[in-house]
Amino acid sequence: MFDTATTDYDIVDATPYGRDPLKLLADECRRQGLGFGFYFSLVDWHQGHEFDGGNNNPIPPSMEPVIEAQIRELMSQYGEISEVWFDMSSPTVAQSERFAGIVRGLQPHAAINSRVWNNVGDFRTLGDNEIPSVPLDGTWQTPASIYHETWGYRSWQQRDDLPGKIRDLVVGLTGVRARGGNYLLNIGPRGDGSMVEFEADVLRGIGDWLARHPGAVLGASATRFGGQPWGEVTVNGSNLYLHVTDWPQSGELRLPGLATRVRGVVEDGAGALDWRMDGDDLVVSLPDRPHDQILPVLRVALAGELRIIPPNTVDARGAWLLTDVERGYSHTDTGSYGSTRRTTVRHTAYLVTDRAERVSVTVRGTADPDARYRVAVGGQARVVTGAALTGGAVGPFTVRPNQVTPVTITLAAPTHQGQDLGLTVDTTLVAATDRLVGWLDAPTHLETGATTEIPVLVTNPRREAASGSVALRVPNGWTTGEPVSFTDLAPGRTVEARIPVTVPADAEPGPASLAVDLSAGGRHLELAGQVAVVLPNVAVGRPATQVSTAWGGVPGRAVDGNTAGDYLVDNSASHTAEPSYQAWWQVDLTQRYQVDAVEIWNRTDCCTERLSDYWVIVSPEPITTNSLAEALATPGATAVHLPEAAGRPTLVDVDGATGRYVRVQLKSTSDPLTLTEVVVRARQ
Fold it and tell me: How far apart are CA 293 and CA 170, in angstroms?
């Protein structure tokens, strides 16, 4: 599509048009004050690549000179280039680095997307039309199209429901923007260059929506609110924008954790709304119907800079157990579409106190011992090795009173923005440096009738060694082991005692408190922990089946007790074939149980949206059909519909249903089913 000297098979030399459209476009963009960039396909079917439906062709050495020459032409003959958008193929690391190096050498200000592959680009390009289920760290983009079936003009494409199409794309735009990404929207002109009238009307509709809601998207930024049950949140200066994709039927919309004073709330185009503060939650009273039928927006006028109280903030004095960690996600690849996976690039927890404290940070977990990590508490930071991070206390830091202080761990010098931390954090203890702290690394739940060894720890942030003993206090009727002594615990170190705890078989499910009993000289703190008492998991290790198997994702993975959820790293997810018609997975519990609840665990690496709009069916009789309608009609079956994407986990209450077979089945007629674990809690 440009005048290249590498071949005569180009638009200038081989077509009646005889002109270079990229030169014309580049010149016109400059006249209009617009930046100009190129899409460049690393696959070239004319120059030597065979067709590959997966677009994963390797690049043979014979094609390297052609690709490199064409990149040089594009970077040197069209003036200043703002962006180079590579696509297709499966290059080696050396090829990716060489192609990107040519761009950076000739056009140092041009941004390069990640489909140059091997993590060499400047920003991450997600999958086509992918709206991530979680906010992503770093710079990233979603490439979207008017129709998901095609990126070009097709005469057979249905063009109807103009308002619905506008809404779909506006929801995609706001979803990407609210999660911190850039939205790239493609249209498909006809072969003569003319625009399809329907697509032009769609673009005008999006433009009209943007004009009705100035500041809601253009110039707006993401927030730490994340996705809400009713929609998305963006911020622009002192205005907070609530994009309401699901108008609450209750007549009230709730935004939790807003610390900035609110001056007023209006629905764009309709006027002021009543509101109130419920603690730190903003509650807005809504009319029966929204004013904007495409996507209504509420504008919240703030009295100052946006301040948020994250839901996992821990309020304490002297010591904080930070177990609910916020993860920052990105992506990495090893040279192709199929090798791309989600990574964890940040751990953040939040604390607040009513007085200033000098503290140290103790991390319990695993880390790459030689990697260098940056530990930040508020605006203060220390760089330590992985061995030092998990082997002692990091600090000291100063925590200021009456404000939310983030405690964040990242790589000190990542090779690219998607490099995984290589860190698993079980618990983070932030403790004052003048006292001994006894704490416990309790599991999230304890099963009735089982004995579990619970790690009970003592950390010494003081300047002198300490000695003493540690025990565990448990609810009445439970049994626990004897106290464990420790001697000369050095400053900055932690000692662990594993104390057995037995929960009676007749214990009632629900929350329970465990507390540390620390005997030691000098000032010390004893921290308590909450656990959930649950019925046993009767699904683990039981026979499992699914409608089909793909990518090696056998059904037994979903009942192996491994809830980690990274398909490529730990082989913990099942997978059916693509495409699938109402794909299903099923476990045979081998006998009938009174089932209390079912836990559905989604993946962590990618593709979490695949496990959405699904049914959980518990049946005393075998479910032998592939049809969802027939499965729901199985005699004695109890079924629950889950429209949203599954969490980690999603707890499904089946209210004591009697069942031997538990099925998870999609409503979709094309999506594959992939899940990490199905836990069935039942009375023995």
Answer: 12
Assess contact for 515 and 471: CB atoms under 8 A: no
For the beta carbon of residue 251, count every other beta carbon within 10 angstroms: 11
Which residues have a Cβ under 8 Å from the Cβ of 458 and sit 6 or more positions away?
436, 437, 438, 439, 466, 468, 470, 486, 489, 494, 495, 497, 518, 520
Strand order across the beta sheet in which 262-267 lies: 221-222, 231-236, 239-244, 297-302, 262-267, 271-272
Residue of 409, 341, 404, 324 whose CA lies nearest to 371: 409
Token pair belonging to 264: 């007023």
Tokens standing for 61?
A: 């050495």
Cα–Cα distance measured from residue 483 to residue 28, given in angstroms and rounded to the nearest whole number:
79
Task: Return the CA Rg of the chain.
Answer: 28
445-447 vs 528-534, strand pairing mode: parallel
Note the pLDDT tens digit of each residue in 145-185: 998 878 888 888 888 899 999 999 999 999 999 999 999 99
Q: For 308, which DSSP code?
A: B
Phi, psi dihedrals of residue 641, rounded to the nearest 5°: -95, 130
Q: Does residue 594 carry a pLDDT above 90?
A: yes
Give the dihedral sign, CA 121/123/129/135.
positive
Asked whether 680 and 589 are in contact (CB, 8 A), the reply is yes
Q: 43-96: per-residue pLDDT in tens?
A: 988 887 888 877 788 999 999 999 999 999 999 999 999 999 999 999 999 999
CA distances from 280 to 236, 254, 258 (A): 21, 10, 5
- Residue pair 598/679 in contact (Cβ under 8 Å)? The answer is yes
Residue 537 to residues 86, 203, 440, 559, 679, Cα–Cα distance (Å): 48, 52, 24, 10, 6
| Amino acid identity, position 549 | T
Return the residue matching tokens 């390797």: 58
d(CA 19, CA 8): 13
| Cα 595 from Cα 224, distance rounded (Å) | 37
DSSP strand E in 1-42: where?
A: 37-41
Residue 455 φ/ψ, nearest 5 degrees = -70, 120
- Minimal CA–CA distance to 329: which of 420, 424, 411, 414? 420
Give the residue among 347, 344, 385 at the shortest CA–CA distance from 368: 385
Which tens digit of pLDDT belongs to each residue from 428-458? Answer: 999 999 999 999 988 889 999 999 999 999 9
Is 43 exposed, middle or buried, given 0-12, 13-18 or 19+ CB atoms closer than 10 A?
Answer: buried
pTM given for the model: 0.83
DSSP 500: E
Assigned token pair, 638: 């109890």
Smallest CA-to-CA distance from 420 within 310, 562, 568 is with 568
Contacts of 560 (CB under 8 A, 6+ apart): 540, 541, 572, 677
Reported for 578-582, long-range contacts at CB under 8 A and 24+ positions apart, including other chains, are 578/550, 578/672, 579/670, 579/671, 579/672, 580/547, 580/548, 580/666, 580/668, 580/670, 580/671, 580/672, 580/673, 581/626, 581/669, 581/670, 582/626, 582/627, 582/628, 582/665, 582/666, 582/667, 582/668, 582/669
